[in-house]
Specification:
The structure holds 3 protein chains of 3 kinds.
Chain A (H helix, E strand, L loop, with lengths): L5 E9 L5 E10 L4 E5 L6 H9 L6 E6 L2 E2 L10 E4 L11 H11 L4 H14 L15 H14 L4 E5 L7 H18 L2 E6 L2 H7 L2 E6 L2 E6 L1 H6 L4 H6 L4 E10 L3 E6 L2 E7 L8 E6 L4 E3 L10 E13 L2 E8 L2 E8 L12 E6 L5 E4 L3
Helix pairs in contact in A: 2-3, 2-4, 3-4
Chain B lengths: L1 H6 L15 H28 L17 H5 L4 H34 L4 H10 L6 H16 L5 H25 L3 H9 L4 H30 L2 H6 L6 H11 L3 H28 L1
Helix pairs in contact in B: 2-12, 4-7, 4-9, 4-11, 6-7, 7-9, 8-9
Chain C lengths: L1 H38 L1 E4 L3 H27 L27 H7 L8 H30 L5 E4 L2 H4 L3 H33 L4 H16 L2 H12 L4 H9 L16 H12 L1 H12 L3 H9 L4 H29 L3 H7 L7 H10 L4 H26 L3 H4 L2
Antiparallel strand pairs in C: 1-2
Helix pairs in contact in C: 1-16, 2-3, 2-4, 6-10, 6-11, 6-13, 8-10, 8-14, 10-14, 11-13, 12-13, 13-16, 15-16
The chains are: A alpha+beta, B mainly alpha, C mainly alpha.
Chain lengths: ~350, ~280, ~400
């Protein structure tokens, strides 16, 4: 099995009722990579998947797999296999028949496809379960049957449509590792659709963040988390504190904005100019309490008032309010932190290089 | 008799009132009792008369127990011939109505078109057409256009016209419960649409095919109004029963009735038990 | 169309359409159209076609005579002219040729002088030639008669307008009775359907349902027959009356219940009542019982609960039940045929039957059938409008 690359060239999808599910999109997914498309439900990510697999024809643009244009090629003739959200295992067939289905459709002899199916079942650690019906298996096992069934047709690209959403948390975490493992073993290109940032960030080589039919950012987990390039990407992935204001001063890297809480500065990612409306984003874990000399190195300071203090074991969540605006801090529970009581005024701050200033679009 | 007595304990009041009598319940239960008596008493009388030696079917003028009327049935050539005709017609109807109903259901459940409701209305219209009209139209059509005289063939055509609609409705109900994603999954795994249909959709529909065949069989065997017009000079078991009834009462008809009723009761009770067991 | 190709592929989609087309056209539309065509078609038998059949009849007689004479010539010894009639009755759909009457047989009997063999042979040849001529002419005329040219065909409303006052009265009466059956069936069935749908325990519900299914599934004819036994002159009711001393069997007294339209009506209610129960039951069963409890809690009377909650919810079921009951009663031939056995005035279904099979007037039969169908369609549309339900609610 060898993964192939997938290229979207100006692909868009507009439904007959006028709804635009996907705006014209260019995207290249490299051969053999684990690529996730992350976005809220209804953002168009499933539509992209269905256009790649051939169930939907793009309104404009074209899809190519392994350099071969896919126009006019039906789902049954594309080198892709799709794992459906509800898995879509055939309930009336045994597990083995399910896995061998694609081979049967290709006319492979019975003994041969049976052997092949058993091989795949052992790849997904389901040896000896071939005679059962899907209904007799647990959720995680069914998941693995679906993977084996898709891999049986030796696809160059495996498309996964939120396949873990039906599982409970523990199983989900276990399956993440397993999927990643299978991907590494087989070298197939995985395109993984999810609204769960944890899944996207932990499994993927690269992630695309998608919103309202538009891909907002593509990058590896570090880039997506640490250097979001749009306000949506910044807030959808992880938690953020947001301060809004107007740019008053810029230099080559940073921007200073005037907010109701005072002047704050951060990295000027969009190259904003004086007078532009801007949001400043800072992650809760990059903020610190500026008490007793801990203020050193904090370029920005905000006066806040502690509202609640939640201990989460290794972390301490400090929920504060600054000028009517909620501010959250995650600090490590070092045991020797300042003794804070709710209602107490607390100065907090952050470093300029941890904050991002982005254009306010709304 | 058993159904009658069995129904009575079921008529116990729904809810125990707090010391007061719920007159609404009492009246409703009394009404049900009357209703079922009205439904069953004539049938019970008919069954009794089948075992009465009195050659005029009667449950009251008892002339002794006999099975003679049953014993005479297999010797009656017209009855046996009629039964054979009925079975031939039923087989023909099943062979015609099942594929037609299935094709109609598949098209209607997959075709996204404004013509959909129109086609649906046309296809179910035979269900809403009086049986004699169906019989008459079929008879006219086949004679006028092809010179085919009314007989077993035209009866098959006339019955299939509306039985196919019943089959279609059953298939549509089943298809509504189908997970369409399964078909997509099959296509995605490289199956041709036909292979996907044969391997995924058809097995899913199979139980309904059997049920529909059974219902079609019953409908065909029991049909009178349509058959009466379309059968021409030939006859089926039921039209033969009908013409015997017109020429006078005979306990042999009661005997046939007993057989029909016994089959009905057995099938209905088995069906109920199977359903309840499944739950 | 795209969705169909995607689901089934082109060959299968094509096959499905062919199958549905066969059903739609071969079993539904074309038969319907040929009935409609017949309904508006008038054959003037008094005109050309009548002349033709008279001519054909004459020719057949001539042919028979020739055959008799030939036989007399060839077998002068044969004294018995009763050879099996040589002619085939009419072929196909042509009206039956007149049967030869015996008197002709006598014409040739004994007339066999057999004087001169040459003369005889000459005569024989002449007869053979004439016979061939006659046969050819018969074929030609018969072809003309069955062909459209000779039959004086017109399209008009005559088949409808010529409906006699009696038939029209029967038509109206049948519709009226069917309407009464429908209303009565609703009144009888509604409480039953409600009680079964609201049965307290699953066991009770299953049992009650079974008690409804069994009579429903028993053949219509048998259920009718059961009532004939009761209503007959020697039937149960008269026996009871005899036992009560109201009438005297022995003296030949007894009511002919079966000879009345009332009996037909009563049996019809019995025969078709269950077609009303099941649709209503199916809809009432889906009603959330809490709605009733809530209404009762709010102090609604039983009457109000039914008129405001249960019946509006059961509308589609009532519509289906009404349509089925009406259609079955208006078109029923089983009940009037078997209950009355010709002793009571005809119902419209019987009138139609007699047009087709006794009067041999298919055109009028078609026109009458079409009237019945139209009446049913009007009823269906009216019910759909009154109950505000669509076709998909009705046929499910």
């Amino acid at each position: 099995m060898h993964g192939q690359d997938v290229t979207l060239n100006g692909v868009s999808m507009r439904y007959p009722n006028g709804f635009v599910a996907v705006e014209p999109t260019d995207l290249t997914i490299r051969a053999g990579e684990f690529f996730s498309i992350l976005g809220p439900s209804g953002c168009g990510k499933t539509t992209i998947l269905r256009m790649i697999s051939g169930f939907l024809d793009p309104t404009t643009g074209s899809v190519a797999i392994g350099g071969r244009p896919m126009e006019g090629i039906g789902p049954n003739h594309r080198p892709t296999a799709l794992i459906f959200q509800n898995l879509a295992l055939f309930p009336l067939m045994t597990v083995r028949e399910n896995v061998a289905f694609g081979l049967e459709a290709r006319g492979m002899a019975k003994a041969e496809r049976r052997r092949r199916a058993d091989e795949l079942l052992s790849l997904v650690a389901l040896d000896g379960q071939g005679g059962k019906r899907p209904g007799e298996l647990s959720g995680g096992q069914r998941q693995r049957v679906a993977v084996a069934r898709a891999l049986a047709v030796e696809p160059a690209v495996l498309l996964l449509d939120e396949p873990l959403s039906a599982l409970d948390l523990k199983l989900r975490q276990h399956m993440r590792a397993e999927l990643k493992d299978i991907q590494r073993k087989t070298g197939v290109t995985f395109i993984y659709i999810t609204h769960d940032q944890g899944e996207a960030l932990t499994m993927s080589d690269r992630v695309a963040v998608m919103n309202r039919g538009r891909i907002e950012q593509v990058g590896d987990a570090d880039e997506i988390y640490n250097a979001p390039s749009t306000a949506f990407a910044a807030t959808f992935v992880g938690e953020q504190n947001r301060f809004s204001g107007t740019v008053v001063e810029t230099d080559s890297e940073t921007a200073l904005i005037e907010t109701p809480l005072g002047r704050l500065s951060g990295i000027n990612r969009h190259g904003l100019k004086r007078g532009d409306n801007a949001h400043l984003f800072i992650r809760p874990e990059r903020m610190a309490v500026a008490l007793n000399g801990a203020a050193a190195g904090l370029d920005n300071r905000v006066e806040a008032q502690l509202e609640r203090r939640d201990l989460e074991g290794p972390f301490l969540n400090l929920l504060m309010r600054a000028g009517g605006h909620p501010v959250t801090l995650h600090v490590t529970n070092a045991g020797d932190g300042p003794a804070l009581a709710p209602g107490q005024p607390v100065p907090v701050g952050f470093r300029r290089k941890d904050a991002i200033v982005l254009r306010a679009e709304d | 008799m058993t159904d009658q007595t069995a129904a009575i304990p079921a008529l116990a009041p729904l809810r125990k009132g707090r010391g007061t009598v719920d007159w609404g319940e009492v009246i409703l239960n009394g009404y049900l009792l009357l209703f079922f008596a009205w439904m069953f008493l004539p049938l019970i009388l008919m069954v009794l008369a089948a075992f009465n030696a009195n050659p005029t079917p009667s449950a009251t003028e008892w002339q002794g127990f006999t099975l003679e009327w049953f014993a005479r049935l297999p010797q009656d050539e017209r009855f046996m011939q009629g039964l054979a005709h009925s079975l031939i017609i039923a087989a023909g109807v099943i062979a015609t109505a099942i594929p037609m109903g299935l094709a109609g259901a598949l098209i209607l459940s997959r075709m996204q078109s404004r013509a959909n409701t129109f086609l649906y209305t046309l296809l179910v219209s035979p269900v809403l057409t009086p049986g004699i009209v169906l019989g008459a139209t079929t008879m006219i059509f086949w004679r006028d256009l092809f010179g085919v005289q009314a007989g077993l063939f035209t009866t098959i055509m006339a019955q299939a016209a509306f039985i196919a609609a019943y089959c279609m409705l059953m298939f549509m109900a089943r298809l509504q419960r189908q997970d369409r994603v399964l078909e997509e999954a099959a296509l995605d795994l490289g199956a041709s649409p036909f292979f996907a249909f044969r391997r995924v959709t058809l097995p899913f529909l199979m139980p309904t095919v059997l049920t529909a065949a059974f219902i079609a069989f019953l409908q065909s065997i029991e049909n009178y109004n349509t058959t009466f017009f379309a059968i021409g000079g030939s006859w089926t078991l039921v039209t033969e029963i009908g013409s015997r009834m017109r020429f006078g009462l005979s306990p042999m008809i009661n005997a046939i009735g007993v057989i029909f009723i016994a089959i009905t009761v057995i099938v209905a009770v088995t069906h109920t038990l199977v359903i309840r067991k499944r739950k | 169309m795209d969705g169909l190709y995607r689901s089934f592929g082109r060959p299968l989609t094509f096959g499905l359409f062919v199958t549905v087309a066969l059903w739609l056209f071969g079993l539904i539309l074309l038969p319907q159209l040929s009935m409609i065509q017949r309904a508006f078609q008038v054959e003037d038998r008094g005109g050309v076609s009548a002349q033709l059949s008279v001519e054909i009849e004459k020719l057949y007689v001539r042919q028979f005579e020739i055959d008799q004479q030939l036989r007399a010539i060839e077998q002068p010894a044969a004294a018995q002219p009763t050879a099996p009639s040589p002619f085939a009755p009419s072929v196909g759909g042509a009206p039956a040729a007149p049967s030869p009457n015996d008197p002709f047989a006598g014409l040739s009997a004994g007339k066999a002088p057999a004087a001169d063999p040459v003369e005889t042979e000459k005569k024989r040849q002449a007869l053979i030639a004439e016979r061939a001529d006659v046969v050819a002419r018969i074929g030609e005329l018969e072809a003309r008669e069955s062909g459209p040219a000779a039959v004086d065909l017109r399209y008009s409303l005559e088949n409808f307008t010529s409906m006699t006052a009696v038939h029209f009265q029967i038509f109206i009466a049948t519709l009226f009775y069917a309407l009464c059956v429908t209303v009565l069936a609703f009144l009888v069935c509604y409480p039953v359907a409600y009680a079964v749908a609201m049965a307290g325990t699953p066991d009770r519900a299953a049992l009650l349902l079974l008690a409804l299914v069994i009579p429903y599934a028993i053949n219509e004819l048998l259920r009718i027959f059961a009532w004939v036994m009761i209503l007959e002159r020697q039937g149960l009711i008269n026996s009871v009356l005899d036992w009560l001393g109201i009438i005297d069997f022995a003296a030949g007294e007894g009511f002919r219940f079966v000879a009345s339209n009332g009996a037909v009506f009563a049996v019809m209610v019995y025969a078709y009542v269950l077609f009303m129960v099941f649709p209503i039951y199916n809809t009432v069963e889906t009603l959330d019982r809490n709605q009733i409890e809530a209404a009762r809690d709010l102090g609604a009377s039983t009457w109000r609960i039914h008129t405001r909650i249960v019946i509006p919810h059961a509308k589609p079921g009532i519509a289906v039940g009404a349509i089925m009951t009406f259609m079955l009663s208006a078109g029923s031939i089983a009940v009037p045929e078997i209950v009355g056995r010709g002793m009571h005035p005809d119902w419209f279904s019987q009138v139609i039957y007699r047009r087709f099979f006794e009067a041999d007037s298919w055109n009028e039969g078609a026109a009458y059938s079409l009237s019945l169908l139209a009446a049913c369609m009007v009823f269906i549309l009216a019910v759909m409008a009154v109950f505000k339900v669509g076709i998909r609610d009705i046929a499910r």
